[in-house]
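PROTEIN DESIGN WORKSHEET
SECTION A - STRUCTURE
LENGTH: 374
TOKENS:
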């Protein structure tokens, strides 16, 4: 039976409580039957029936009473967004299986709620290294160009690179945010957020429309990133990081976790290397990720180019790449030799060489770079 407007308003009021927990709400709904009935009770009754402290019940009722559900609906409408409630049509089926499914889900844009959607979470550190930047960008580009839906958190670092790769390819990507959908955090991602919507993606939150970016919002947001994905890929992250929290939640949800290996002396790779040591599958390229997807999620993907071993006959190179290839010729060169000859910083040259390697143009053995023979 569809929810009435009054019941939706009551559920929005309930959802506004910062410390709402699914087990408590579930008990109250079982006892009282609806959000409207819950809000008719006094704090003492809710405390006794819900098995929470009297102070928590009082705080809950105060929060719900002060929340303006009518203004919330107006904000949602003005933003051309929607809110779906647990049990309603349009609520993602995969979220029903996670720990503490959100009561309400605010959505701007288009969200594919099919349990077989080819959605892959890519997460990682905000303190991204040049290595992490190269890897995240390459993996994201290959995945989104294969019609995989990239899922991340719109944070600085890995998240932003992942969403940006999808936007450049004009493909959909889903951003699970730690604020309400009426805000953008960090502020510098406003244009990226707009581009996500313009390219058929979605911005999603369980928080009220104008919720600020409070620290406690982000760890809980991570369970939704995992919950909307078929698997999770961690690019870079310290042992104690949000990316590793997402990986833990994915494992708890029975999802595969894949990890990108990194330098053993880089703090940003400590978490990813630890995941591999503990059994996570290692990611060497995008094909490893696609291979790990459930069979039903692979249907409709466009992976012909990704799995082809042939390089395009007329490959275009940047000016710097062309100089590197001309210098190498039919010989082998070390990065130090090339940096000296080209008068270029090693850090910049390393990025150029990496791109040529991942595109199958160069190979590197024992520190010597050479053109790949076809």
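SECTION B - SEQUENCE
RESIDUE ASSIGNMENT:
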């Amino acid at each position: 039976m569809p929810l009435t407007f009054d019941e939706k308003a009551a559920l929005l009021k309930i959802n506004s409580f910062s410390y709402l927990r699914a087990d408590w709400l579930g008990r109250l709904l079982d006892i009282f039957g609806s959000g409207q009935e819950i809000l008719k009770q006094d704090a003492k009754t809710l405390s006794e029936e819900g098995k929470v402290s009297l102070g928590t019940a009082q705080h809950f009722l105060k929060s719900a009473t002060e929340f303006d559900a009518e203004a919330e609906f107006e904000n949602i409408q003005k933003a051309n967004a929607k809110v779906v409630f647990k049990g309603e049509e349009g609520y993602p089926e995969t979220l029903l299986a996670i720990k503490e499914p959100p009561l309400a889900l605010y959505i701007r844009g288009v969200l594919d709620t099919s349990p077989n959607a080819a959605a892959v979470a890519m997460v990682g550190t905000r303190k991204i290294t040049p290595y992490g930047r190269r890897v995240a960008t390459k993996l994201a580009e290959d995945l989104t160009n294969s019609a995989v839906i990239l899922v991340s958190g719109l944070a600085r670092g890995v998240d932003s690179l992942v969403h940006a790769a999808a936007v450049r390819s004009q493909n959909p990507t889903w951003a699970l945010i730690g604020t309400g959908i009426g805000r953008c955090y960090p502020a510098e991602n406003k244009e990226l957020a707009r581009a996500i919507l313009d390219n058929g993606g979605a911005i999603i939150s369980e928080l009220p429309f104008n919720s600020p970016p409070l620290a406690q919002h982000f760890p809980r947001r991570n369970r939704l990133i995992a919950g909307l994905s078929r698997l999770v890929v961690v690019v870079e992250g310290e042992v104690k990081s949000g990316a590793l929290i997402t990986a833990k939640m994915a494992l708890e949800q029975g999802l595969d976790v894949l990890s990108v290996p990194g330098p053993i002396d880089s703090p940003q790779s400590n978490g990813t290397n630890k995941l591999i040591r503990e059994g996570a599958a290692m990611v060497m390229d995008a094909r490893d990720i696609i291979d790990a997807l459930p069979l039903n999620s692979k249907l409709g993907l466009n992976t012909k180019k990704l799995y082809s071993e042939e390089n395009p006959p007329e490959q275009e190179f940047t000016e710097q790449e062309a100089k590197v290839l001309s210098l190498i010729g039919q010989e082998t060169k070390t990065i130090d030799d090339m940096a000296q000859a080209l008068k270029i910083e090693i850090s910049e040259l390393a990025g150029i060489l990496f791109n040529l390697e991942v595109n199958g143009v160069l190979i590197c053995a024992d520190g010597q770079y050479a053109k790949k023979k076809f």
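SECTION C - NOTES
The first strand starts at residue 81 and ends at 85.
Residues 86 and 96 are 8 Å apart (CA to CA).
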